[in-house]
Each structure stands twice: as C-alpha cells, then as structure tokens.
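Exercise 3.2. Students should predict the tertiary structure of the chain below and write it as structure tokens, then compare their answer with the key that follows.

Predict this chain's 3D structure.
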Amino acid sequence: MNGHGSALIFSLVMAGTLLVWSGGLLTYSTVAQRATLRDWHQMKAFYLSEAGLDVAIHSLKEDPDYMGVDYTDIENGSGGYSIWVGPAQSSQWRVRATGFYPSNDPTAFGYTSRTIEAIVQRVKVAGPGYGVLGERSIRFDSFGDDTEEDERGVRVDSYNSRQGSYGLKESRGNLQVVTNGHERKAVALMGRVAILGDVILGPGSDPEKTLWQTSKTWSWIEGEVRVAEVGTALEPVEMPQLPDGGRLLISGHEVVALEGGLYRFREIRISGHGKLVFIGPAQVYVEEDIQVSGKGGIETAEKLPTNLTLHVKGLRVSMGGDADLFAKLNAPDATVEILGNGDLYGAVIGREIIVRGSADVHYDEALNIYDDALNPARNSNPIQVVVLSWRQLN
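Answer key:
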C-alpha cells in the first residue's frame, strides 16, 4: 500500500473517531441540558407551592372556614398551584399546597410538581407575655440546697429570638410572672432574685402576704406588682391521635435525634450524658412525666424556643442538669421544677413552678405570636396565622 492509501485510511479512521466523539458530546450535552432544565422546573414548582402556602395563610387569617382552591394559574406558561385545607386540631389546620410547572398538564413538556404540607394555627397577638405562669404558686429560690445565698442568683427577663440570640445587653422586662394563687407566699422570692417584668397575683390577694421576699435587700422587681381582677384560665393538655412512642428513656452517652413534626410519648427520662435532639420544629405530647438530669438534656432546632413545645399531661416535670432548654413548657397540671445550672429560654406554664439554684428564665417574646395561652385575651388583637411545622412531601 502506497503512502496515499495509508493517509486516506488514517483520515477515515480519524473522521470516524471525531464523529463518534462529537456524537457522544452532543448526547452528553443534551442529557446535561435536560437535567438542568428538570432541576430548574422543580425549583419553580417548589416556589409555586410556597406561594400557595402563603395564599392559604393569608386566606385563613381572614376566613377560618377557608378550604383551599383548585388549580390556579399564575400567568400563561408560568405555572400555578392548588391548595387543600383540612382540620388538624383545635384552632389548627393541615395545609397541602402543590406547585405545578409549566402547568397542571402532566403531558406537557418538562411537567413537574412539588407539594408542601404544613400545620398552621390561627392565634391572636398580644402584649407582654406570660413568661412564667403558675396556676397555684411560683417560687424562685437561689439559696439552693445548702441554704446559702448564691452570689449570682436567679434572673427572670425577656428577649426576642427573632432579633438574635440572648445577651444581657439585649435582655429586657417585657414579660409577666403570673399566678392565680392568693394564699400566703403564693409567690416567693428566696435569696437573690431579679424579676425585670411585672408580677401579677391572683384575685383577692393581699400583696404583703401573697408576695414573699426573703429578703427585700436581696430580691427586687423592676416592673409593677398588681392583683388581677380575674384569674387566668389554663387549658388542659389533650393527647392527640398520634402513634404512641412509649417511654423514651435516654441515658449514658446515647443521643436520640428526631426530625421535626408531632410526637407522642408515655414519658421522657434523660440522664447522664444522654441527649434528645430535634432537627426541625416539633411539638411533643407527654402523657405522664418528664425528668431530665445530667449533662445532655434536650436540644432544640437552631436553639429557637419557637421550634419546640412540650405539652405535658402528667403531674411532674423536672428539668435539671447543666443543659439549657429552649422551649415552651406547657404542663398545666404539673409541679414544674427547673433546677441546676441550665437556663430556660422560652416560657413555662404549670400548676406549681419552682426555679431553684442558679437557673434563669428568659422569656422569648417571639412566642407571643404563637399561643393565646401565653397572652391574655384583649380587644382589637390582630389575628395571625403561624406555621407550626412543615415538610416537603415529594
């Protein structure tokens, strides 16, 4: 074979190779383009589902009987959403908002959909919240178990987690310490105790007897002390129809991590270095008691009290140890003890409340928009619809 023949064969081989390579490159580019287009459409569908959820929240704010809408087109070729609303619990709704792009026609090129399911609640906004609400009595005791004055003492103040984490510079007294009790020492400040907000005593109280300070040179109240005209109603905890998680017992160095959502347990006990971690916003219902001690405790998503509510139907709650708790603690029938070195960020409701040792209480004003139980009913309260939890279904 002469040189011209070899060159021709080489050229044909190279041409074939380039053809195969360019075809593969074209195929890869097409696949990559389709994948990028699919991701783009999925993102648009997700944003449309969020838009549907916003529409549902606004509609429920105006009309508690709102039940959603069928497919609603945003603009021609821009997709749309559908909304379904059904009851979840008292004053709560389950909302499913589905976004469709480029339309709700499954045969359309690039069709995709995304659904968000949320639990929302319709509440009233009110003023200074019930940071500490003890139906019968409240006791702050910085003496501890050794009956000696603690130099640091107990501090009761407020902050707003929507404006950042807690700090002494940001703390203030926009809270109320409230009891329905009127007996002698229904509110007791033992040792060094500082309450930056107001103290509200039960109807018929004699402030000189109902409020007990030992001594007044060690404890002080920066707000006002007054007697309520009517008592504050505490709603009982009703156990929802949820799967029973049984007894949650965590000890040693065990860590139990749970996603956000609604949970029900028979009881919760945490000791040693054991820790219960909530990755997302959660509401937890406990039929009996909660006992927490040791180093671990309960960890709330993003350390935001609005991300965790503990509803306790039982008669005892003991929050001890060194870990801080970021939550709303709702135990209207229980004796609630906050012990040790860990502070409470959020709010606490109980039958009897005891804060002992060096634990502080920092009321989170962000809870005002979430729960009527923390705020007295007032005229002209604006209505808010707040999201308690949400998840993407597909």
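Discussion points: The mean pLDDT is 84. The chain has two domains: 3-125, 129-374.
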